[in-house]
Every structure is written in structure tokens, then in C-alpha cells.
Amino acid sequence: MIQSIASRSGELRAAVAEAASLLRRSRTPVIGGMMTDIAGAEAAIALAGAIGGVLDHAHAGPMLRDLDAMREAGVITVTPTEARARADMVLIVGAARPSAMLALDVPPTLAPERPRIVWHLCPGEAAATPAGERVVGGTPAEIPARLALLRALVAGRTMFAHLPAAPDLAACAEALQSAGYGVALWSAENLDAMAVEMLCGLIDDLNARTRFAGLPLASPGNVAGIAQATAWRTGYPLRVGLARNRAEHDPWRFDAGRLLAAGEADAAVWINAIDTTPPPWRSAAPLVAMVAPGTPKRRPSAAVTITVGRPAVDHDAVLHDPTLGALAAKAASAPSDLPSVAEVLNAIRAAIGAAEVGAC
Amino acid sequence: MLTLLAGGRVIDPAHGRDDLGDVWIEDDRVIAPPDPPRPPDARHDVSGMVVLAGGIDIHSHIAGANVNTARLLLPELHDAPDGHAAVPVSEVIGRLYAAMGFTTVVEPAISPHVAVQAQCELDAIPFIDTATLTVLGNGDFLLDLLRDGESGDAVADYCARTLAASRGLGIKVINPGGAAALKANARAFGLDDVVPGYGVSSRAILAAVQDAVISLRIPHPVHLHCSNLGLPGNVETALATIAAAGDRPLHLAHLQFYAYGTEGPQGFSSAAPRLAEALAANPQVTADVGQVMFGQTVTVSSDTLRQFGARAQAHPRKWAIWEGEGNGGGIVPYRYRRSSFANAVQFAAGLELFLLSPDPWRVFFTTDHPNGAPFTAYPDLLALLMSRELRAQWIATLPKAAMDVTTLPAIHREYSWAEIATMTRAAPSRLLGLADRGHLGPAARADVAVYRPQADHAAMFRNAAMVFKDGRLICRDGEVVETLHGGALSVSPGFDAAIDARLARYYDHVYGVKHTAFDVATAASGRRFETVPCRT
After folding, report:
1. Nearest to A327 among B116, B182, B321 (CB)
2. pLDDT under 50 in chain B at which residues?
3. What is the ipTM of this complex?
């Protein structure tokens, strides 16, 4: 076991060499977690290209649920900043809570003469609904059906009046159609694919008469940013395989957890420079773990553990900023000597390349 | 490193040169023949070949949130049989442009709030130098200034500050006021329509930004995407916009998409001859064509009002619209079909603009990639411009009723090499203020494309015989010789820093974030920025 916690030390060089050796011997390596900055993602993509690896992200699942609604049907979305400025109607779906920046309790900043009305569909048991928000009750499992009924009402169809939620749904549908600029807000962490697609369809339907847009809340770990980087580098979002001299995308086939659980992958790289969540996998495949300071040790230990700097904390970085709804350049808040994910991955790739040249 | 390209036909319209001769390169620059003579370190015999400066594409959507959303929207296109998606990945963009002999490309529509992503993507494109145009004209801060009758200086300070923060080479205005009007539930927006809540017309927004660009001495004039794109009869919008420009310089983007009349049995016809006349009469106006070619592509635009309306024409049936501060974006896949009356008229109207244009210095070569066609169609388009016979073959495959509402079949003109070189090299250099490229005079950047003449013009343009970037041989017959990375071009006009304090207050209240949060931090981006001087 090689563990590197010091920066730019002999230990780090040894760890990089060990990781390179391990990955070079691998036939089907997976690079997962991918909780890093854009430079880290680009380095991971380059490494995966060099070793014929698979790229996945810890939060690829919810990201792909949102993306599937777009690439199967179509979506209208809005940035968080524009929603704060313009939304006089907000429909929250499921247990999501927006960031304080959205300031739902005050009128839209560019239309202060209009009150901001908030409806919450199926908030779930734990949610304490703020005063003034109107609620259509229901469990998470009822969300797709509730959304379907809202779509039917917006389309002018009649509904079975005996349903307990009928009066609330009718009032909600009426309110949504009276919006000047409405925003529907959700987190795909809490919604299944059917609910996301139904909601995006409702948003589109509402645009027949008024304006409405969706605000999917970004999942953690910079997954929105990493999916952008894989798109400009490979054409695809995450769950990409680079083993056949071209990129392939398959959300099932290239699921890192599945590949490791099924024994299809014979080496793994876990990258999490953003928080201290340790690798979740239980697999016999040797593991290279790149972790942020303070990450708890896991059993069994990784073959190689490298402590890396946190983007925008230890080093400057480009990250997706969920309050901006865009990639943003962030200066380090507490610069340190810890190596960045990009530096470590590029060093591993260089070590693999040097060894292969030598082998020829 | 001294390099000699010996004995080629050297065509350099910026210097009126079209003769058999040599081009000398020392390191990254073109030089006069060494005097006293020195032996070159590398000598390339290019006799029988044509030597041009590296091509400059003034309008091609190669990066940014909209382009990347198009990639994500259409995973099926990345498996296209020819391996070239309508929206290729960054590495492929650089390689295919380089193979064609293009060495500088302008991404023409980056909204200030997504500029960081655009620079990240451009940094991933090898071989070519790149630049962006910063999109203004729909943002609430600017509309506020205009509603309140603020001074031209305030507008100019805002434009300059935003340009500097987003690292643009110039300013793009896209359907001025249209995206803002869509947010207020407008579904159509013309030159004299007024943005709800602001009382400011599209015409007034355009004039204000033009005045700002003039006062800031930015080399590239306002790069305008007019209102009413794609609609029958919209030639009137384009003509009214040209008239509105008055004496102010103006660049009209993808003019083909505004070359439509309402004649003929389907109420849709080419009005390109009228636009060609207007261009001839208005020397302060330039235009790029935005040629349509046939096949599957995806339309990518910050004209959210237009793209919102185009959802019904999506092929395949899916799309993405996003709204943000200012323009936002709309991504709608589309397939141009030879059998379609309307698509055939569009194809003809674009060629008419090229062929009826009086002046290759003012009409530019684009397909509005990927909107009219992917840039990979350039070789075929160049071949069509150079051969009347080839055009006749294409016309024979198109609906006759469509050709009857255009003048294309009657046009005999064929572009000469000098005109091609003007349109794709010398003129873009002048239009963008890039004095160091687009020509082969001493001190020019040694970006050079060498073509091997052959009967198949498209094959000739697809894979240049040799391409040099900064004096290095990067491609030979379409194959990469050396991979290198280009730089980023931007302008940096000065402004009164007081505008920052105003923006800080506005962003804190309206958006709840810092106004600097969107800025391109040059250190973090890894980009090699080069400042293009403003006019003196």
C-alpha cells in the first residue's frame, strides 16, 4: 500500500509511479467519482483516452435524468439568476429547496410590482413549507401522476373530481397559467426519469399561452461542469468509454459501480477533490484513490491513495457554479502546495506513456 | 528556422500579388527574401501549387454553452457515417479546419455570462487561433441605461467593460430586444418593435451599440443578427436595417437567412438580388452569407425568440431553449432537404448573394456553421462558387419550381482564385482588424496554406497540400504533421471604472451575485491572450 499525503514529495512520485504501473496492467480501468474541476476532468479524459478507460461521475445518475428529458423530447430552462430577477410564479416539485440567492420570499427583482407566488408539489414529509407557499400534497411516488394531471388541466381537460387532491391541483393549474414568467424548480436527485420528462412537458405546454421555464438544480460534485467538459472532449456526457479508439456513451454499460460490482473492471480510479466522501465501491479490483484532505480511511484500503488539493480552495479552478448556472473561474481561498487532480493525472499519464515508449 | 516555399503561384490580394514566386518564412513570420541570400533550413518545392495565407473564418459556432448543448442534445450525430458530426468535438474542429488551410476562426456568439466555458472549449481546440464576439443588446442593464436616456459614454463604458471581462474581439448583437421581449411573452419582434417594460425599440438598441463600438474604436463593426430571421418577406427587415445603419459601419451576419421574398406559388422566394443591390449601394455595410447546404445539421442561436418559434420544425423532434441574462440560447436540430422547395430556395439565395455581390472585400464566406451547414461543407461550397458547370449539376437535382423563384440558374459568374483569397483571407483580416494575418507580406504571421490544383476543387480544399501555422508545418495532405495550440485574440478598449460600481450594485440587487463572478480570469483559463489594437 502506498499512501501519499505530502505534496510534491518523493512519496507522491512513488504513488504516481505505482498508479501508472497498476493502470498500465489494467485491461478495463474505470475512472469514477470525477468530483473535480474542469482541468481535472480534462486530465481524466486524456488519461482515459490513453489507457482505454471508462469515465463516470458519482452523481451521473441524476444528471442523466435531466439530460434524458432534453435529448428525448425537449426542454426550456432558465438560469438561477434570471429566475430570481423575473419569476412571479415558482413551482417547486418534490423535496428540492433552492439556494438563498433565489430569494423566493421577495418579489422578482425586475418586476417588483408583482408578488412572487410559490406552489409546492409533493414537498414530502420532512419539508417544512415556508409560510405563504401553497401546497399540493402527495408522496414522492405520486409526483409523476400529479404532474400528468396538471398537464391535463392545463390542456383544458376535465379531471375526476373525486380525487382528494383535485381542488388543489385545479387551483395550481389555474395559477400556473396566470404566471407572467413562471419557473418550475426541481432536483433530479429526488425525481425519477418519468417525473422529469412529465415536468418538462408541462413547462412546454404552459408556453402555449404564457412564459414558463425549468430550473433543474445542479447535483453535487461539479457534475454539471464535468458533463460539459466530457461533451466538448468526447461529444457525450458522462458514462463514456474510450476503449475502442473512439468515444462511446452508454449509461448502463459505463456505470462505474456496475462495472466494478460485476467484475468487468479490473482497476479503478476514484477522484473526489471536492468533499470528503470516500470511494463507495466494494471490489477486488485495485484502487487508486485521489481524495481531499480529511477524507476518512476506508477498509479495505486503496492500493494507492493520493491527497489532492480542493479546487477553488487549495488552487484556482474553473467549476460549475450552481448559483450562476454557468462555469466560473474561482480563485483559491486558501492556497496550498497540495497537487491538483490535473497535475497528478497528467503525471500518471506521462509515466504510462514513458513506460510504453520504453517497452517498444 | 528559415523556410522557403519555392516556385508556387502566390496569391496575396492584400498586396495585389498573383504571380509565380517564393514565400520565405523565418520562425513564426513571413519575411522578405533574405538579403544577402541565405540557404533555407527547410525548402518545400510548391511549383504547380497555389500559396495563400491561412484562411480566416469570421463566423462559425465552434464553442460555448449553446454549441456544447447541441452536442449533448444529439448523441446520435456523433456516430455519423463519415465520422464528422454537425457539431464535432473540439479536437476534431481544430484538425478539420487546419486540414482545409484555415488557421483563425471567430466564434461569433458568446454571451458574457457563459464566456468562461467558451474559453475553456476554445482552449481544447488545437492548431487554430480563435476569438469570440461578445453578445450584447438584450441584457436588462443595457436596456435600463437606454430607457433612462443615459449618455453614450455610459453605454460605451458598459460595452467596453463587458468586452474586457468576457475577452471578446468585438460585439455581436442578436435580434436586439427580441430575447428580452420573449421573456415578456412576445412571439414576434421586428426592427421597430419596442421591448415591453423598457419602451426601447430594436432600432434604438442597435444604434446605441453601434455608436459605442465607434466611440471605442473597436476594429470590427457591430456584428448583427437581424430580427425576423428565416421568415418569408424578411428582405424588408434587412433593407430597413441597412438603411437604419446610415453612415455607421455594420456587419450583417448570415445574410442569406434574410434574403426571402413572398413571390411565387408558395409565397416564398429568393430576394437575394435586392440585397446584393443594397450592398453595392452601401459601402459601409459588410455581410457574410450563411450558405445552406443539404443534410442533417443543428441550428444553434442566441436568438431565443426565433428558436422558440422553430421548435415545431425540429428534426429530429427535440430541442433545448435556455434563457439567461441577455440572450440565452436555442438549439433546434434541422435537416435541409434537396426535395424541399423552401430549402432549395435558401440554397439558391445564398449562392446568389455570393455571385451577385459586387465586392469580395465585403461579402464573406460562411455557412454560419452549423446553422446553414457544418463547416465541413466548405470545400463543396468553394467548388460551387468556382464552377458554373458544377452548379448546373446541383440545380438539376433541385425542385424546378424553387429555382423559378430565384435567379441562380441564369448566373454565369465563377469565382477566381484571387476572389477566393480575398473573401477568405485578405478581407477578414481587414474586417476584424487583424493586421498580422490574412496576407503574405513581410512580418505577417506565417500562417500559410498550399493547395494542389486538381479537377475536383472540393478535394483540393478539403485537404490542403501543406498548412503552416506560426511557421510550423502542421498538416500535409490532410494528415497531421505536428499538433500545436493557437492563441486567443481579444480587444481591450479603455473605460471609466465607475461603471464597475454601478454594475456591482445592479448585480447585487437584481441577480444576487457579484458582477465579476462571470469574468474570464486569464490566469485560470490557461489561454494565451493576444490583444488586438483598437483603431487610432
Report:
1. B116
2. none
3. 0.96
